[in-house]
Amino acid sequence: MSSENTHPTSLSADALPPPPRPGAFNAAMRELWKAPITAKFGIIVVLCYIFIAIFAPWLTPYGESEIVGDPFDLWGDDFMLGTDNLGRDMLTRLLYGARNTVGIAFVTTCLAFLIGGVMGIVAAITGGWADQIMSRVVDILMAIPALIFSLLLLTIFGTSIPVLIVIIAVLDSTRVFRLTRAVSLNVVVMDYVEAARLRGEGMGWITLREVLPNIMPPLVAEFGLRFCFVFLTIASLSFLGLGIQPPMADWGSMVRDNATLITYGDITPLLPAGAIALLTVGINFIVDWFLQKTSGLKDGQ
Amino acid sequence: MQAILRLIMQRLGLGVLVLFAVSLIIFLGVELLPGDLCQELQGQSATESTIKVCREELGLDKPAAGRYLEWLGNITQGDFGTSMANGREISDLIGVRLYNTFFLAMVAAVIAVPLSLVLGLLAALYRNSWFDRLINIFTLSSISFPEFFVAYILMLVFSITLGWFPSLSNVSPDTPFGERLYSVFLPALTLTLVVMAHMMRMTRAAIINLMASPYIEMAQFKGMSRSRIILRHALPNAWAPIVNVVAINLAYLIVGVVIVEVVFVYPGLGQLIVDSVQKRDIPVVQACSIIFAATYVILNLTADILSIATNPRLLHPR
After folding, report:
1. I need a surface site. Which of A45, A190, A265, B266 has the fewest CB within 10 A?
2. Closest chain B CA to residue A234
């Protein structure tokens, strides 16, 4: 996941239609410099999370599921944030959680975009009955609340990480499909798409080279929002004990496992929940700025 | 008027179709099981003959289409079958819990809807003031927070530190109304915070959108006060999107209830579905899903119909 994720901020420049020019990086940096404080805050937060996710094994004092002390130890020198319900170091698990929770959410979102995005563009290009069928299926899938649907599917297929990823990705791809289809419909009626068709280009070329580059900005923004949504869903499922399974460190289940501490007025269980909240707030700030940026560009033209 | 009625009838027909499709998906989902319910039920100890007996007992030897119709027929009469985990009637399990869940959702809605409408209106009225900005930051963060985070923060503040409200919402069927209201206060407040943001933003955006229209400008030229313009001229035209978003958020309440119920150990339908997923008690999960999904579909349908009915353009067709 690291290679695609290390420069989320330069996406804004890369996302524009032409292939990256030599000055594109500089332009992106300049854009970044002018960004409002909230967007900068969001970018810093996201970069920190990515850093922690990649370097978790080197940053943590103990092993991910190593039992190093008594259960529910207090904050102190040995364990900066105390220990959890089984005596594992809280800080270690918090840092590893960045890798597991964020990583799985990222993979899921990518898969959702792969399925929903491709189907959406194809539906828009093909039109006719194929489009009708796909759209109606999506309508019906969206009529069932996502959390309930995933609970039902998890009961049927059992809880494991691949199953979790596929279920959430498929359910979420319906939302991606709707958006992609809607924005693609505006593009497929353009003359250059018609020209490509007359040239005899195949579906793959039209999808990837003609339509996709022109719908990139809304898709990138949607990617941020969908990631937050997927991230929150997975955290919620883990919190319910149905998502990422032990002994993997994960923020949702960490809250659940240590929730009893809250009744003693200890805020430790809130830290993983806070970590989730901070990342989603950060991403929302970036998306807010990015949306303003890209819609502003259109107004200027 | 005729056009509206026809539109509404169309939506109703579509809604019934969707309900059918949803029930079909929930029913067919189980058919996707590797093996079937009986193998799942008996696990390792299954033998050829016990599975056959079980299949006959559950009627699994009959074709799927017939079983679906029978299942649907039973559900419409309130018979959801029996639980796999303890053999009890599912309708007994659901009855009280369904009432509890609706009670919680209703309390949350009664607090959330008026509050978010008023705050949204105020934010539109005092646009770009510190109040508006405060509301903006508040809504953005409450959209980003996981529900259990909000729930535990409220629990920490109001029940552990201040000791005003109970941290666990224990209710039983014979709890008096007042006490019931007191014990669901924290879960209801959590739900309120979760759904309020969206409704508030929509109210504000719908009003502000209209503020650029010519008739609003006219009202300004007449020298009307800003609050009067918003209440008399902008609000009636903004009802459609507002009503729509309110109904959608009420539908969301039904789903959001699941996590909040688990946090506060509230004996509702959400608890039941989570417990049953852990036990892989498929019939119970199926029953709960269909209730949740049906409520969701019906509320979304209401949103659709209300936004048609409150659209002034449709009331006076050209």
Report:
1. A265
2. B146
Q: Contact at 8 Å (CB) between B150 and B142?
A: yes
Length of chain B: 318
For the stretch B34-87, pLDDT in tens is 666 676 666 666 677 777 777 777 667 777 777 788 878 888 877 777 777 677
Give the nearest chain A residue to B27 (CA atoms): A152
Q: Are A175 and A149 in contact (CB under 8 A)?
A: no
Inspect the interface and report whether the beta carbons of B293 and A144 lie closer than 8 Å. Answer: yes
Distance of alpha carbon B209 from alpha carbon B237, whole angstroms: 10
Instruction: Give the burial class of A167: count Cβ atoms within 10 A of its Cβ; 0-12 exposed, 13-18 middle, 19 or more buried.
Output: buried
Which pair of tokens denotes residue A261?
Answer: 């501490």
Residues on chain A touching B14 (C-beta within 8 angstroms): none
Tokens of B264: 């506060």
SS3 A89: strand
Measured CA to CA, the distance from residue B67 to residue B135 in angstroms comes to: 52
Nearest to A273 among B30, B152, B161 (CB): B152
pLDDT at B104 over 70: yes
In terms of C-beta density within 10 A (0-12 exposed, 13-18 middle, 19 or more buried), how is residue B280 classed? Answer: middle
Question: Of B313, B309, B310, whose CA–CA distance to B7 is shortest?
Answer: B309
Average pLDDT, chain A: 79
Of A33, A18, A35, the closest CA to residue A290 belongs to A35
